Amino acid sequence: QVQLVESGGGLVQAGGSLRLSCAASGRAFSLYAMGWFRQAPGKVREFVSAISWNGGSTNYADSVKGRFTISRDNAKKTVYLQMNSLKPEDTAVYYCATKPAGVSALYDEYPYWGQGTQVTVSS
Q1: Any bridge partners for residue 21, and if so which?
Q2: Dihedrals φ, ψ of 104, to 5°?
Q3: Which of 26, 32, 106, 120 is the most exposed place for a label (fewest CB within 10 A)?
């Protein structure tokens, strides 16, 4: 069983930065891919980024490429999402998720989810 807890969300002005963290429990963390998704009010949950078990492969949504960076520290069982040049349209609840095997942008392939952290970007 894996449990995920996100932190680091908050209110920031457009152009600012935030770093989200997702702490995991469970011995299989270092073997699992990790993903970040987000959901804005009235919208479907969308893929943001994902990273393979060893960090060797990453994937980003076009909307965040060049602005967001995903990374992980397997010794700390934590995955990070560094978000720079934030825009009001980045406002959403951000969720981390984990799955066995490789990275994926499909949320229904992730069996384990955190509770989410709110990110609000003011204009």
Answers
A1: 7, 80
A2: -155, 150
A3: 106
d(CA 40, CA 35): 17
Give the H or E element holding residue 44. none
Q: Output the tens digit of pLDDT for each of the chain's 123 residues.
A: 889 999 999 999 999 999 999 999 987 778 899 999 999 999 999 999 999 999 999 999 999 999 999 999 999 999 999 999 999 999 999 999 999 988 999 999 999 999 999 999 999
CA-CA distance, 71 to 98, in Å (whole number)? Answer: 14
Residue type, 99: K
Closest CA to 96 of 43, 49, 26, 28: 49
- Residues 73 and 107: their CA atoms lie apart, in Å, by 22
> Quick one: which of 122, 121, 47, 116 has its CA closest to 83?
121
Contacts of 72 (CB under 8 A, 6+ apart): 34, 51, 55, 78, 79, 80
Task: Record the tokens describing residue 13, joined without a space.
Answer: 């002005």
